[in-house]
Design brief:
Layout: E1 16-18, H1 35-64, H2 70-102, H3 109-125, H4 131-155, H5 171-184, H6 188-195, H7 200-228, H8 235-246, H9 251-261, H10 275-284, E2 289-291
Antiparallel strand pairs: 1-2
Helix pairs in contact: 1-2, 1-3, 1-4, 1-6, 1-7, 2-6, 4-5, 4-6, 4-7, 4-9, 4-10, 5-10
The structure holds fe (ii) ion (2 copies).
One fe (ii) ion binds near residues 55, 143, 182 and 185.
């Protein structure tokens, strides 16, 4: 089955430099004094340097297989913006993670993901003619999660269900900016996969793999962060986790539909979320970033 890519998703992505200062570090419980919310977000941050480098490599490799048609040319241009955006995220989260290390947390997720990736490259991605499609299918699946989290972050700003309502700066701005760009570039890896002939069967196989790995990795690193923080056994930690997962505005309730939607053969990332949330946040916070151009970092 061949899928049409909506033309509206082919646009130049702005690469932004965020004007936040991470040099001074941040509080141990920077997310509103909430140990669970802090540990959960910190766990995600720990995965980004390795994960986002993988996404960059997958999209860069995929773009090399595009042809000369105007549609492919437009997609190549969008891919450059994607690479620039992810490179900036990767850089800022590396600075962020260095402070986590100083706070005594240990990143197990990053090294584990790097080992897994090395095995994947040796056995499949770099030894098969379709290796680039496998890497893109994995990237598209992870990008579905990051876009979902991005949309959910921006959906309830300053309302019940806002994960960063009481977060300290500069991390509040860092997370919302990252959320906006994840939402903005959510179609890129998916569109490349489809444009290069990726099929639904493998898209589903890798999605199932990513759902399991991402859930387990997030859980393991969050628990480890809480254990090192000596807050794992506090009732308030578990109350916050229960609220976050199963509350009125809980994660499980909010992601069930979009996760199911990804399984449809005619799915496209633009069918879920709200495309204007990201642009609204970026416009409202234009004083906190400046454009540095897409091709500069591609
Ligand atoms: Fe990112
Ligand atoms: Fe992304």
């Amino acid at each position: 089955m061949t899928l049409a890519i909506p033309q509206s998703t082919h646009h130049t992505l702005t690469v932004r430099r965020l004007t936040v200062d991470l040099s001074q570090g941040f509080n141990r419980h920077w997310n509103g004094g909430d140990a669970f919310l802090t540990a959960f977000c910190n766990a995600l941050s720990m995965s980004f340097p390795v994960g986002e480098q993988f996404f960059i490599d997958a999209v860069r490799e995929g773009a090399k297989h595009l042809g000369d048609s105007p549609e492919h040319e437009a997609l190549r241009q969008t891919a450059r913006g994607f690479i620039g955006q992810e490179a900036t995220h990767r850089h800022l989260h590396s600075l962020y993670n260095a402070h986590l290390e100083k706070q005594g947390l240990v990143n197990h997720w990053g090294p584990r993901a790097a080992r897994r990736l090395e095995t994947g490259r040796r056995k499949m991605f770099r030894t098969s003619a379709k290796g680039h499609l496998h890497e893109l299918a994995i990237t598209a699946a992870y990008e579905h999660f990051t876009a979902l989290f991005g949309d959910l972050t921006l959906e309830h700003v300053d309302q019940p269900g806002d994960w960063f309502a009481n977060a300290d700066e500069p991390l509040k701005t860092l997370w919302r900016w990252h959320a906006a760009e994840e939402s903005e570039h959510k179609s890129v890896a998916f569109d490349l996969y489809v444009a290069l002939g990726g099929n639904h069967t493998w898209r589903m196989r890798w999605f199932n793999y990513v759902v399991v790995q991402f859930t387990l990795d997030t859980l393991r690193q969050t628990v480890n962060n809480l254990w090192r923080d000596r807050t794992l056994h506090k009732p308030s930690t578990w109350a916050s986790a229960a609220r976050f997962l199963f509350g009125q505005q809980g994660l499980v309730r909010r992601i069930a539909q979009p996760l199911k939607a990804y399984r449809r053969p005619d799915f496209h990332p633009t069918q879920v979320g709200h495309s204007d949330l990201a642009s609204q946040w970026l416009n409202n916070h234009a004083h906190q970033w400046r454009a540095v151009g897409a091709s500069a970092q591609a």
